[in-house]
Design goal:
This protein has 253 residues and is α+β, with helices and mostly antiparallel strands. It has a domain of 93 residues: Orthogonal Bundle (Transferase(Phosphotransferase), domain 1), CATH 1.10.510.10. The chain has 9 helices and 9 strands. The protein has a 5-stranded antiparallel sheet, sandwiched between helices. Strands 6-9 form a two-stranded antiparallel ribbon. The chain is globular, with a radius of gyration of 19 Å. The structure holds adenosine-5'-triphosphate and magnesium ion. The site of adenosine-5'-triphosphate (ATP) has 21 residues, from β1, β2, β3 and β5.
């Protein structure tokens, strides 16, 4: 298939595109997310059946957009697309440099974003293997990551900060996840907070793991301490008896 035909095909399978016909502001955001190379990455994922339809947007963040989608079999999926134009390259470079999983640096911004998405995929695989509840990684190509969708048919699971939950249970989940990540997956999440844990019925799911670094990364310890501080502060306010040092002892074992 020629490139123009591929682009046409993919665009016909992207539901939010309909809105671009009447809304010029939306059209701008849309073309920022779905640039030609992103569309070709989606095309590759479509030809392998990982994506059939890109459905409604779940979230529009600083660096990426998350969409609900369907795979070829009709299962719900979550599609995270890192925008090339508006990514935080400095931060990405700092987290990638010093991680033994990545040899050599790249000055190519596009390639850096691709690595970032690949890093999130690899972190999801490691964390899942270590028994941490994360969305199951399904596929990744360039700046596009396909993973298990967390939520119901009607709506994606809410963030911890917006949900009703038992603080002790959520605390347990958080500490157990940190420990398994550290001990078995050999990574530190680096951005654990009430913004990166989903509440799906009675289960918790840890998300947003792109920045998680290998324990050998020079900033790993510093990030672990920062995570412990944030977790202690948040759950302390909810009445859980904890502090940073107690968390660090539990995580390091
Ligand atoms: N697998 C998933 N299933 C359902 N919803 C998801 C999934 N992954 C992410 N989300 C939703 O998308 C939002 C953004 O995802 P994520 O936290 O991974 O990206 P981000 O890079 O932190 O974006 P932001 O710039 O908004 O912080 C989440 O807050 C959550 O609401
Ligand atoms: Mg997030």
């Amino acid at each position: 298939m020629k490139k123009e035909e591929a682009v046409k095909y993919v665009e016909s399978r992207i539901k939010p595109r309909k809105r671009t016909e009447e809304d010029s502001e939306y059209r701008k955001t849309f073309s920022e997310v779905f640039d030609d190379s992103t569309v070709m990455a989606i095309y590759g994922l479509m030809s392998r059946g990982y994506i059939d339809i890109v459905d409604f947007p779940i979230s529009t963040g600083k660096e990426g957009n998350v969409f609900r989608g369907l795979d070829k079999k009709g299962n719900n999926i979550a599609i995270k697309i890192y925008r090339i134009a508006t990514s935080n390259f400095r931060k990405m470079a700092l987290y990638i440099q010093g991680d033994p999983r990545f040899r050599g640096i790249t000055k190519d911004r596009r390639k850096l974003v691709y690595r970032w998405a690949g890093k999130e995929f690899n972190n999801l695989e490691r964390l899942m293997a270590a028994g941490v509840r994360v969305p199951t990684p399904i596929a990744q190509r360039s700046n596009v990551l396909v993973m298990e969708y967390i939520g119901t048919e009607d709506r994606p699971a809410p963030l911890l900060k917006d949900a009703d939950f038992d603080p002790e249970k959520a605390y347990r989940f958080t500490i157990d996840s940190m420990r398994k990540a550290y001990k078995d997956a050999k990574v530190v999440h680096g951005d654990i907070s009430e913004y990166n844990i989903l509440v799906n019925g009675d289960e918790f799911v840890l998300i947003d793991v792109a920045q998680a670094v290998h324990l050998k990364h020079p900033s790993a310890e510093e990030l672990l301490v920062r995570d412990a501080k944030n977790v202690a502060r948040y759950f302390g306010k909810l009445g859980v008896e904890t502090d940073k040092d107690k968390i660090l002892r539990e995580v390091r074992g």
